[in-house]
Design brief:
It is found in: Membrane. The chain has 10 helices and no strands. It is mainly α. The structure holds malonyl-coenzyme A.
Length: about 300
């Protein structure tokens, strides 16, 4: 058997394994959604794009992600490995490139979404989804794919052995956001969805700048205080984003004759409550306790 026949065989085997998994996963996801009163219809604007027509690819990505994270955390904890004192050169370069890429991509998506919103004469809120707005649909599709690429953040945490960063908040956020955006891109990739994607993209411009600086600076506490003092304001900005999305989904999209699918607005509303609660807890743990520990040090 030649190498090309071997490759064909592997491709065929993978294809049939995927087919079998799709036969199991896809009907169950749609049955679960139907039980929650959600009956999504595949949008013609994104139907032909990879990872959209079936929930299986995104579900498989999330499953592999969760398995890698669980195994990684277990391995680090069982070997009692401490976080790296200093990132070795290749890892530091990888982290800087990853953050640069996400910084630029977030700005591109944030700018593109606003440009498309202006071109289609959207108002700030209350926008109807039109399948003919293909450029908007493609940008939202890119936003969905970027959420899968952002799984790389967690792999960076694992490579640095920073298990403190691999929190319930972090893993829940990364996994759930990919699943929710699959649903949006499947059913209504346009209209009101532009708002939370644009807002989140601009928040991520600030977030990846923060992570980029932290990787470039290293662990020196003096330089961290000098260049990363705004971390707490970044967390506040993220929480404000969740509140704005909550208000948007409740006030603008619900009610009689909503311009955007009501079930997506409802999913967004409850999802934002969960993120806000987790971030409020993160804020108190991280910044509340640092204030307390400074006060404790001063009282010594
Ligand atoms: C200030 C925050 C942005 C980040 O809080 P952290 O506690 O993670 O911040 P930190 O100061 O410890 O971050 C510095 C450490 O991150 C490492 N680091 C660098 N780049 C990274 C990357 N792309 N992903 C993960 N970690 C990274 C640095 O090397 C450094 O490690 P070392 O210290 O070892 O040198 C916060 O507001 C926040 O978001 N907290 C929630 C935790 C989280 O997972 N956030 C991201 C996804 S949530 C999200 O994205 C919400 C949204 O949509 O707005």
């Amino acid at each position: 058997m030649g190498p090309s026949e071997l490759l064909d065989g592997v491709r065929l085997a993978l294809h049939s394994v995927y087919g079998a998994l799709d036969g199991v996963i896809s009907p169950r996801v749609f049955a679960l959604l139907a039980r929650c009163g959600i009956q999504p219809v595949l949008s013609p604007a994104t139907a032909a794009l990879p990872f959209v027509a079936s929930p299986t690819p995104v579900v498989l990505c999330c499953t592999v992600y969760l398995a890698v994270v669980a195994l990684g955390v277990l391995a680090i904890r069982s070997s009692n490995a401490a976080p790296l004192a200093r990132d070795p050169f290749p890892l530091r370069t990888l982290i800087i490139l990853h953050n640069c890429f996400l910084f630029v991509l977030s700005a591109f998506m944030g700018g593109g979404l606003i440009t498309e919103a202006v071109r289609n004469r959207y108002s700030l809120w209350h926008n109807r989804y039109e399948p003919s707005q293909l450029a908007m649909a493609r940008l939202l599709y890119l936003f969905f794919i970027s959420k899968i690429y952002e799984f790389g953040d967690t792999f960076i945490m694992l490579l640095k052995r920073n298990t403190r960063q691999v929190s319930v908040l972090h893993v829940y956020h990364h996994c759930s956001v990919a699943l929710i955006w699959w649903l949006i891109v499947y059913h209504a990739p346009g209209g009101e969805a532009y708002f939370s994607a644009a807002l989140n993209s601009w928040v991520h411009v600030a977030m990846y700048l923060y992570y980029l600086l932290s990787a470039a600076i290293g662990k020196d506490p003096v330089r961290r205080r000098k260049y990363l003092w705004w971390g707490r304001y970044l967390t506040m900005m993220q929480m404000t984003q969740f509140i704005i999305n909550m208000i948007e989904s409740r006030v603008v999209v619900s009610g009689k004759n909503p311009p955007y699918p009501q079930f997506i607005a409802n999913v967004l509303f409850y999802y934002m409550i969960s993120l806000f609660a987790l971030f409020a807890n993160f804020y108190v743990q991280k910044y509340g306790s640092s204030r307390r520990s400074i006060a404790k040090l001063k009282s010594l």
